[in-house]
Amino acid sequence: MPPLRSPRLPDFCNLGTWLRVLLAVNGMALAAAVAGNPRAPVGEFIEMAALVEPSVLAALAALCIGRRFIARLDARLAAFLVVASAMAITAAVSSGLTFMTDAGNSGRAALWAGLVALLLLGWFDLIARAHAPALAEARLSALTARIRPHFLFNSINAVLGVIRSDPRRAERALEELAELFRALMKDNRDLAPLSDEIALTRQYLELERLRLGERLQVRWDVESCPPDALVPPLMLQPLVENAVYHGIEPLDAPGEIHIRLAGEKDRLSIEIANPCAAGGHHAGNHMALANIRERLSLFFDLEATLATGARDGRYVVRIELPIRQK
């Protein structure tokens, strides 16, 4: 007999998890209302929802608060704790409602809550296993290995151009190129510290500055960003590469890329602005942004947003995501 698989628990602080749980629970309540009172299911459903939703919201809030403790437990023990918490919270909320003071009703509500929690955990586990590793890891690998071939060839040509006049700079450039490709070859399934992403992007920009010279101007605004915040790996560098490729390369005069990273309460804001160059390389722009948007969805579900648009003659990419730390 094969060993039991450890269940994969969802992120109880994720907005997508809350939305899916509420939709599933309300769907079950609607089905029960239709089965119990087919002639007037709407009133029955409203009454059931008024009883069910406070318990669901209270349970989700408690699990979100205790997510770090739950994450340290064995997966099966954590699942048991989630079910037990849902039952206990449901019993407490039910008994606290003036029209649910009967102990038997509270007990039945707790049992139903335990059953629903088990079903939902099984559902989230199936979803997680359907997307990882066969799908999610393959998609992440494809998304993170997208450094453009022209960058490699241009960097090598730039190194060859200074290898006689400035051999130390050429050696340093080759080391930076090796670091960049070492990062590309790493296992990029987990979130990475923002400080690592900034350092990698600075190395990339140094290589591009070797080729573009004074045409590439970069303004960093990172004073208020939390360096230990966790972000999708290799997210910042491809966005900046996109800005160089579409905004700076087509220009004859110098152009500036503005990179702003800021922590605002529990949200991390990333904004990259580059010149809107007439006749630029715009064909692959939407594909690159779609890949970043897909990666954000894989890691943060509905809690991350990516927006683009023109502002003051510049093309702006703005990302907002929750701040997560180790």
Could you walk me through the main structural features you see in this protein, from its secondary elements to its overall organization?
By secondary structure, the chain is α+β, with helices and mostly antiparallel strands. The protein has 2 domains: 15-131, no CATH class; 139-322, Heat Shock Protein 90 (2-Layer Sandwich), CATH 3.30.565. It has 11 helices and 7 strands. The strands form 2 sheets. Strands 2-4-5-7-6 form a 5-stranded mixed sheet. 29% of the residues are buried.
Succession of helices and strands: HHHHHHHHEHEEHEEHEE
Query: Would you report the number of β strands?
Result: 7
Cα-based radius of gyration, to the nearest Å = 26 Å
Mean pLDDT: 80
| Poorly predicted parts | 1-5, 100-104
Helical percentage: 55-70%
Portion in beta strands:
5-15%
Features:
326 residues, alpha+beta, Heat Shock Protein 90, two-stranded antiparallel sheet, 11 helices, 14% strand, elongated, disordered N terminus
Give the gist of this structure.
The protein is α+β, with helices and mostly antiparallel strands and 326 residues long. Helix content is 59%, strand content 14%. The strands form 2 sheets. It has a 5-stranded mixed β-sheet with strand order 2-4-5-7-6.
